[in-house]
Design goal:
Length: 430
């Protein structure tokens, strides 16, 4: 590797890194991809929802051999109190065709498959290799990287930084700041193995049908956070996600919250008799695209989670990461094809193209996790569950006697102004 020079070096082999490396390699560029894990996906056990439209642009026939867990046919939403839940579900009417528009995937399996496609396209992929430094010349231009394998610089015309939300390399180089606690959420999850037939019976699923369950309520102890359950082929993944700033403020242990979530009666019945496997934790961006850092500079571009591309409502973080890697690769190829030097002015086309993509797609809604969490996740969850209990338990009392205590509880807990405001919002959403 010493003495070799590459058109581009990609640091990281997640969704964004693989998309960037594959896109450039398919265009004939000489690409080196470096991944610190044993293989792509070895350090990523999270689930994701995949939007096929984004991947089809890179691998049109991906459905032929990609490790897709299930096609997502239904999303369920639960509001939990300590013992019960109130839920609703939405079943997609367009999920039964030959080309479903959303899939559930396990990243540890999918990323490894994705990386194989990068190799097939002609890129050089080195795993178990950590990039220790972005190498810069005297003017501050990035000219390559140094790794834990060799002290000499591996040179490239441009370095694509796809190292995740921490963006430690870019931070050490002074290109951007560390993410603040309120800009990232900590996700803690566990995988529970079960026979496929039991999973499908408990969730009322057929063949390759999949479901995702999102939960809110008392499980997060009033913090900005949610629980989730992904149904895979032969396992169920469940976990919680909370803003790091709230975890710090509350002094809560993430694994303690996860254990309480697992013991909730509504969750326990789904994983009863299962074999618990991997525990894992990772950070995800929650700052929103408007809070994105600097995206490019002298000889480098930033892609993936580091760009704060995360739609917390539609769960499109993986698809958005793929899009950012692909767009960065297209921008780099456009500059190199023109014969122009890779200067910041030329690389600015990347930000222009990415902004156009974000404007065209559904925009993220980061404020959802920051608005009055103490009411939405504690008071309202408890009172809605109580209202449903009163509704179902008609022990010979009149409607007024049933409804009166619940209405009074809402007013005493939330106040007149907040209750009226919530009621008005619900009216507008009808």
């Amino acid at each position: 590797m010493i003495g070799d020079r590459f058109d581009a070096i990609v640091v990281g082999a997640g969704m964004a890194g693989n998309a960037a490396a594959l896109s450039m390699a398919k265009r004939g560029m000489k690409v080196l991809q470096l991944e610190r894990g044993e293989y792509s996906g070895s350090k990523n056990t999270q689930n994701a929802i995949l939007n096929p439209e984004v991947l089809e642009g890179l691998i049109p026939d991906f459905r032929a051999d990609a490790p897709l867990e299930r096609r997502l046919v239904e999303q369920r939403f639960w509001m939990l109190d300590e013992r019960s839940h109130v839920g609703l579900r939405y079943r997609f009417h367009h999920c039964n065709g030959k080309r479903p528009d959303r899939y559930l995937i396990l990243r540890t399996r999918f990323d490894r498959w994705f990386s194989a496609k990068v190799r097939e396209a002609g890129a050089t992929v080195l795993c178990q290799t950590s990039v220790t430094e972005l190498a810069q010349n005297r003017t501050g231009r990035v000219i390559g990287v140094r790794t834990d394998r060799q002290r000499d610089i591996i040179q490239a015309d441009v370095v694509v930084i796809a190292e995740g939300v921490n963006k430690s390399l870019a931070t050490r180089a002074g290109f951007c700041a560390c993410p603040k606690p309120h800009e990232v959420a900590l996700v803690v999850k566990q995988v529970h193995s079960l026979p496929r037939r039991i999973i499908e019976a408990r969730l009322n699923l057929k063949r390759d049908e999949g479901v995702m369950i999102e939960t809110t309520g008392t499980i997060s102890r009033g913090m900005s956070g949610m629980g989730f359950i992904y149904v895979n082929k032969d396992c169920i993944s469940l976990g919680i996600a909370c803003l790091v700033s709230d975890l710090q403020r509350a002094g809560e242990r993430p694994y303690g919250i996860l254990e309480r979530f697992k013991r909730h009666s509504s969750v326990l019945r789904l994983i009863e008799g299962s074999e618990p496997n991997d525990y894992s934790a990772h950070l995800i961006p929650e700052g929103g695209y408007n809070g994105k850092p600097r995206l490019f500079g002298e000889g480098w571009v930033l892609v993936g989670d580091a760009v704060q591309l995360n739609n917390v409502v539609r769960h499109e973080d993986s698809s958005l990461a793929i899009a950012s890697g692909r767009i960065a690769a297209e921008a780099i190829f456009r500059v190199k094809s023109s014969g122009d030097p890779i200067t910041p002015d030329c690389l600015s086309v990347y930000e222009t193209m990415l902004n156009q993509f974000v404007a065209h797609s559904k925009k993220p809604f980061p404020a959802l996790l920051h608005t009055r969490p103490e009411n939405f996740r504690l008071t309202h969850a408890q009172l809605i569950a109580k209202a449903m209990e009163n509704f179902a338990r008609l022990e010979g009392t009149s409607d007024a006697k049933q409804d009166g205590p619940t209405s009074a509880s809402f007013l005493s807990s939330c106040g007149w102004s907040w209750s009226v405001r919530d009621a008005f919002r619900r009216r507008l959403l009808r």
